[in-house]
């Protein structure tokens, strides 16, 4: 108990004792001590009731009344209440200022921000950017169902996914030429935050980049063909001094040709929203082809093994695209595995789906490089990649092919022990293996 409060409490007890002693003395002088003491006690109770009533009226009136001067318990209580009310008002004022600052910051954002009730999926608040991007009006749309208000956007199934909803790219309901990237952020048990960002310019720049790469790669084909033709015409036996230079020129031109082909393949895959043609892919024949290509590239320097433990499963998709993806994984395993190492290709069942794995005993990949492996031209070791003849586009091509098949690429690696690249396919991409009739 603070010293001032303790002092007020002791002073009040002393005053009460003095009143009762004075009443007893007066009562003894009158010959009725108990009656006088009782009346004095009732008077003290009445006075305390009156002070309590004043405190209650002060609390219910919500007025900032200056506490009276003096000592005693009731004056100390008035002082503490006044201080508590002042601190509460100050805290409330700071909270209101913070809330205004947050709302002003949200209103100033160029992205559309909508606060949504999770249970009813109704709009609780939105900023000014929602009007040009989503067409929402204040106050008409406050409390409106979000799915109904943003029609014809396909939001019903997207909102049903909740915190697991992926980023959704849709045209703006106000202007179909504007593309919005929608993101759902659950920030409490009952509230969601819908963020809509205009990504039209970014998509336009991305399309310009793809067109530029495709056009440049296509135009490079003709001069490279001419260079190859002239190099083939030069006979190293007629010019022995030129043999090392001609060999290097041929090697670099072939590498450039492979780079152009990979760029064209990647550009074609990026521009495709779906596979042009789908068919049943015989995985037995695919594994045989991959093993033959691996042995041809290895030239006997590696041990190549194949394991088909899929229990009679095939894949459904684009044969050319999947062969390109699998071939890139196998060629990478050969290139980045020292002579004497092994490469293992395995196709197996995984739940209701299937997975194709390419494992090697190569150099391995440090963990900090794994998230960026599928970026185009990203190299873990530049010198090693150039020595092996890689273009830096194989894993990017593999990623885009798997995306077109609703599949995913998983990479596990340990430095000095090797790497495993796994292509995981869902149940919708798995088919029972067709029996092959053997003609007599």
Would you kindly provide a written description of the structure presented here, covering whatever features stand out?
It holds the Pfam family HATPase_c. InterPro entries: BphY/WalK/GraS-like, HATPase_C_sf, HATPase_dom, His_kinase_dom, HisK_dim/P_dom, HisK_dim/P_sf, PAS, PAS-like_dom_sf. The protein is α+β, with helices and mostly antiparallel strands. The protein has four domains: 3-102, no CATH class; 109-198, 2-Layer Sandwich (Beta-Lactamase), CATH 3.30.450; 202-271, Helix Hairpins (Orthogonal Bundle); 279-432, Heat Shock Protein 90, CATH 3.30.565.10. The protein is 50% helix and 18% strand. It is built from twelve helices and 13 strands. The protein has helices at residues 3-30, 33-61, 73-108, 130-134, 146-149, 156-160, 200-233, 243-271, 283-298, 319-335, 382-388, 394-404; strands spanning 112-117, 123-126, 168-171, 179-186, 191-198, 279-281, 303-309, 313-317, 342-350, 353-360, 408-414, 418-425, 430-432. Strand 4 and strand 5 (191-198) form a beta hairpin.
């Amino acid at each position: 108990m603070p010293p001032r409060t303790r002092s007020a409490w002791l002073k009040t007890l002393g005053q009460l004792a003095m009143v009762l002693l004075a009443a007893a003395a007066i009562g003894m002088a009158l010959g009725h001590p108990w009656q006088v003491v009782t009346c004095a006690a009732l008077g003290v109770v009445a006075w305390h009731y009156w002070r309590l009533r004043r405190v209650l009226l002060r609390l219910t009136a919500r007025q900032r009344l200056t506490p009276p001067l003096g000592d005693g318990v009731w004056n100390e209580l008035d002082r503490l209440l006044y201080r508590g009310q002042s601190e509460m008002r100050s805290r409330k004022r700071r909270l209101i200022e913070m809330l205004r600052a947050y709302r002003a910051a949200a209103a100033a954002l160029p992205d559309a921000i909508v606060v949504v009730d999770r249970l009813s999926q109704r709009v609780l608040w939105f900023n000014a950017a929602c009007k040009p991007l989503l067409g929402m009006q204040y106050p008409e749309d406050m409390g409106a169902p979000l799915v109904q208000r943003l029609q014809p956007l396909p939001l019903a199934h997207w909102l049903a996914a909740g915190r697991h909803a992926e980023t959704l790219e849709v045209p703006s309901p106000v202007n179909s030429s504007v593309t919005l990237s929608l993101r759902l952020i659950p920030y409490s048990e009952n509230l969601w935050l819908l963020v809509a960002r205009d990504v039209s310019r970014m998509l336009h720049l991305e399309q310009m980049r793809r067109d530029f790469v495709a056009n440049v790669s296509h135009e490079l084909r003709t001069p490279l063909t001419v260079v190859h033709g002239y190099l083939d015409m030069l006979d190293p036996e007629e010019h022995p001094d030129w043999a090392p230079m001609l060999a290097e020129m041929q090697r670099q031109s072939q590498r450039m040709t492979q780079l152009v082909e990979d760029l064209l393949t990647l550009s074609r895959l990026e521009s495709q929203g779906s596979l042009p043609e789908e068919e049943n892919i015989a995985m037995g024949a695919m594994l045989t082809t991959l093993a033959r290509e691996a042995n041809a590239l290895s030239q006997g320097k590696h041990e190549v093994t194949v394991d088909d433990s899929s229990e009679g499963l095939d894949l459904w998709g684009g044969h050319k695209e999947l062969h390109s993806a699998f071939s890139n994984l196998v060629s990478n395993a050969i290139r980045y595995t020292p002579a004497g190492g092994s490469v293992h290709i395995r196709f197996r069942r995984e739940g209701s789906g299937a997975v194709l794995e390419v494992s090697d005993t190569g150099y391995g990949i440090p963990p900090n490089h794994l998230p960026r492996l599928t970026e185009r031209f990203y190299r873990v070791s530049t010198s090693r990649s150039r020595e092996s003849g890689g273009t830096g586009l194989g894993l990017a091509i593999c990623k885009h092919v798997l995306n077109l098949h609703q599949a995913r690429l998983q990479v596990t690696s340990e430095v000095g022990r090797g790497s495993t690249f796994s292509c995981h396919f869902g149940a919708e991409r798995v088919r029972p293996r067709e029996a092959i009739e053997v003609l007599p």
